[in-house]
Amino acid sequence: MSFSYHKSPIRLWWRRQQLYRYRRISFIWFIFVFICILIVPNPFSAEYSRIAINQDIQWNSINETLQIKEQILQNEIISDNSKVVKRGIIEEQSTSRILIVLFTTIFRDKKFCSFSIERIFGKTCPSKNRCQWSCDHEKFREADALIFHAYDIPLSRAPMPNRSETKPNSVWILWSDEPPTIINYALLKSYHFNWTISYKLNSEVSIGSYGLFSRRIHPLSDNTYQDWIEKEYYNRTNGALWFVSNCHSKKRLEIFYKLKYASNLLNEGYGRCVDYYPVHLCSSFSQCEYNYMSKFKFYLSFESNTCRDYITEKFYKAFYYGVIPIVYGPNRNDYERLAPKNSFIHIDDFHDDIDKLADYMKEIHSNLTLFSMYHQWRKNYEIIIDGKALERIRMCELCQRLSNLRKDDMIYYENIENFYNDGCR
Ligand SMILES: *[C@@H]1O[C@H](CO)[C@@H](O)[C@H](O)[C@H]1NC(C)=O
Ligand SMILES: *[C@@H]1O[C@H](CO)[C@@H](O)[C@H](O)[C@H]1NC(C)=O
Ligand SMILES: *[C@@H]1O[C@H](CO)[C@@H](O)[C@H](O)[C@H]1NC(C)=O
Ligand SMILES: *[C@@H]1O[C@H](CO)[C@@H](O)[C@H](O)[C@H]1NC(C)=O
Ligand SMILES: *[C@@H]1O[C@H](CO)[C@@H](O)[C@H](O)[C@H]1NC(C)=O
User: Fold this and answer.
1) Residue whose CB lies within 8 A of the most ligand 1 atoms, among 57, 64, 218, for a mutation test
2) What are the TM regions of this chain, as residue ranges (predicted)?
3) pLDDT in tens, 85-123
């Protein structure tokens, strides 16, 4: 009986209608929830989204940096066969325009393609009117300089040009700000690039890779500075802070835990490797990061490796937020070439004695005079971390160097892998 009841066509029809209606209702719900997600603002977004930073740099406010850089290039001793350098004597007094062709994208992005000369090289760049920029890779035959971005070379639609097809004196430039742990430079050896744009100070173009100290036009008065330093000292009641997301570097994790247990200062670390609260993962230069940073006296600017000159925004960020960086990474000397005296604390100064470092941090924490010593540089310099401003300075350095090229100058990278591996432990 019941069997035939279930098979009744009317009943089946009715069930199908129910199912259909149910599906339709759930579909409407689905659309509703989807629209809600789209239109209802995320209540935390203000905390976590990036704060716009607008800075600019005058070319002549970095004249000291330029001088240091020039000395490094002049006195460069190439002992690892990485580079071949022959300096020409005949000055070329040319005024012709220099065509720079960006052959690849920059992280899949077509960079500066439609920008004005001032936006690319900066208003204060002395040689800006001599340089032209093009993203049309088909112009490679006319180019005076060709830029290839290491990350994008394998992604490029056009194959790498042949040297014999480009101008005989064209400058082939490899742009890469990644350490050799990320990019396999061995694959790029055979191109024998002429110049590099990178974080290494013995790259032809390097200024402002991740940040820059710029001389103030008007130094801070003693009163302004004193007010500032006292406020900072008393408001920053916590010890050292660390944000970390890459857990592969074991050495720096080890130092962090030693430091944490060595001192009763609050050494707080946030990120996947040291705690489990996703809420603590502030995005870079967000309100959330600012709120944390303004409560601490120290920031652990620990690099993921010790490669020569690999000093990233972790370092410059600390200065920007008024924190003293405790650094682990390349040698002290590499930092000193970029940062003013008494601006940071280097782990190496304590010869692996983390207890001694912790004691020193405690001393600074409770002594305004000592704390102030690490901020004196602020009277004369300001810190630039705005990516756009830094890019303009770098491109100006490129244009300056291209326009000062002598007739028989010859540089090329015989072994670019050695060049990037310098100092990596
Ligand atoms: C840099 O420029 C400033 C101001 O123009 C000048 O006082 C200073 O001596 C220059 N420094 C160097 C190293 O050239
Ligand atoms: C580059 O061009 C030259 C001359 O046209 C040719 O002999 C050589 O094989 C080419 N090299 C490559 C890698 O295509
Ligand atoms: C410092 O703390 C005082 C009092 O807690 C507060 O009013 C002031 O806004 C703080 N200043 C800064 C720069 O955070
Ligand atoms: C604070 O540090 C300065 C400089 O090292 C030192 O001369 C002074 O005695 C210290 N003050 C205290 C209270 O320890
Ligand atoms: C560029 O490198 C090539 C070797 O790859 C070299 O023959 C040429 O002279 C270099 N040009 C400049 C301007 O350094």
Assistant:
1) 64
2) 21-40
3) 998 887 777 788 999 999 999 999 999 998 999 999 999
